[in-house]
């Protein structure tokens, strides 16, 4: 039992630098602030056009059970929540009061996503990304690359940059996102096999989807791919194979860059051929590609450009399989 506990801790809690976590915070928060953020006017429009929720999400039901609808679910209430969320996001971006800012920003993001999907139109692309944002609030995300770090250094009377800080809780948000993406892909692939069987890979199924999406969304590339049956067969096999095998990257860490890169290209392909805008998934995959197994890009920097970056302390631990 002790051995399994040690392996569990080695996977989730290796002692590593907090620099990559800080970089993840900056990239993720910036993406949400500038690219993924909800439209306040759209949220208020939903309120004005719908006197009641059609299918309230869990968070919305919980809030509505505690606070009367006419207090929070009003244009003025939403405006206040929106700007509090945005201000918290800016603070989280620069790393000021990082944990509190991230917590407020994450919950504000959750609130607006849950409200958007409380009117029967339910999708899932934001789920893993939103969970990752919340996880950042419970990790030392402000220990590096933050105003908090500058303040800490100033209070300690240091006038030169300090060595990157280390923590055994610096990796678990990225590890959690990795596990959630593996579960997402596996469940999607399994659904295809259970309900479609091998017929899902006969090429005709994908042709039908691409034709429908291409015509509805005016996607020339999707329409072109749909006219090539053999290519659709190969892409169908690739899709199912990737979704069902992605979890291997959890157990064989060295394969993670391969699977993450293919998954990212897969999502980009879906965007270009079918118009599926899974931007939050792409962002999570991009962060994982950079920071889960960073040696794939660190080694070329050293070899070809002479850039030497300090290795993670406990890097061997960080590469422990799940």
Rg is: 22 Å
Q: Low-confidence runs (pLDDT<50, min 5 residues)?
A: none
Tally of separate helices: 18
How would you classify the helix and strand content by structural class? mainly alpha
SSE arrangement, N to C: HEHHHHHHHHEHHHHHHHHH
Number of domains: 2
Number of distinct beta strands: 2
- The overall pLDDT, averaged over residues, is 89
Percent in helix: 55-70%
Strand order of the largest sheet: 1-2
Strand content: under 5%
Distance between the amino and carboxyl termini: 15 Å
Shape, please?
globular
Largest sheet: 2 strands, antiparallel
Descriptive overview:
By secondary structure, this protein is mainly alpha-helical. Helix content is 69%, strand content 1%. A two-stranded antiparallel sheet has the order 1-2.
In short:
It contains 18 helices and two strands. It is mostly helical and 322 residues long.
Keywords:
18 helices, single chain, 322 residues, mainly alpha, 2 domains, globular
Topology of helices and strands:
Layout lengths: L1 H11 L3 E2 L1 H18 L3 H10 L8 H9 L2 H4 L2 H20 L3 H19 L10 H10 L10 H9 L10 E2 L4 H24 L8 H14 L2 H7 L2 H17 L2 H4 L4 H19 L4 H13 L3 H11 L9 H4 L4
Antiparallel strand pairs: 1-2
């Amino acid at each position: 039992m002790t051995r399994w506990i040690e392996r569990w801790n080695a996977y989730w809690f290796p002692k590593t630098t907090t620099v990559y976590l800080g970089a993840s915070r900056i990239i993720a928060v910036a993406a949400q602030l500038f690219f993924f953020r909800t439209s306040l006017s759209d949220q208020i429009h939903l309120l004005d056009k719908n006197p009641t929720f059609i299918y309230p999400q869990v968070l919305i039901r919980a809030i509505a059970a505690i606070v009367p609808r006419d207090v929070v679910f009003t244009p003025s209430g939403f405006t206040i929540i929106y700007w509090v969320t945005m201000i918290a996001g800016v603070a989280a971006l620069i790393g000021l009061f990082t944990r509190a800012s991230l917590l407020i920003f994450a919950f504000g993001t959750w609130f607006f996503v849950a409200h958007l999907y409380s009117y029967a139109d339910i999708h899932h692309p934001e789920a893993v990304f939103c969970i990752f944002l919340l996880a950042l609030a419970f990790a030392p995300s402000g220990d590096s690359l933050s105003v908090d770090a500058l303040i800490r250094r100033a209070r300690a009377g240091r006038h030169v940059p300090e060595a990157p800080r280390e923590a055994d809780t610096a990796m678990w948000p990225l590890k959690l996102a990795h596990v959630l993406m593996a579960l997402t892909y596996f469940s999607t692939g399994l659904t295809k096999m259970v309900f479609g069987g091998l017929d899902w890979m006969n090429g005709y199924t994908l042709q039908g989807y691409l034709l429908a999406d291409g015509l509805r969304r005016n996607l020339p590339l999707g329409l072109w791919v749909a006219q090539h049956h053999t290519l659709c067969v190969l892409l169908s096999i690739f899709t199912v194979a990737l979704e069902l095998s992605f979890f291997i990257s959890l157990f064989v860490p060295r394969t993670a860059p391969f699977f993450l890169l293919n998954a990212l290209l897969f999502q980009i392909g879906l965007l270009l051929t079918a118009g599926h805008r899974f931007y939050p998934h792409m962002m999570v995959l991009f962060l994982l590609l950079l920071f889960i197994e960073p040696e794939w890009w660190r080694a070329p920097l050293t070899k070809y450009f002479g850039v030497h970056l300090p290795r993670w302390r406990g890097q061997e631990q960080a590469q422990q399989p799940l």
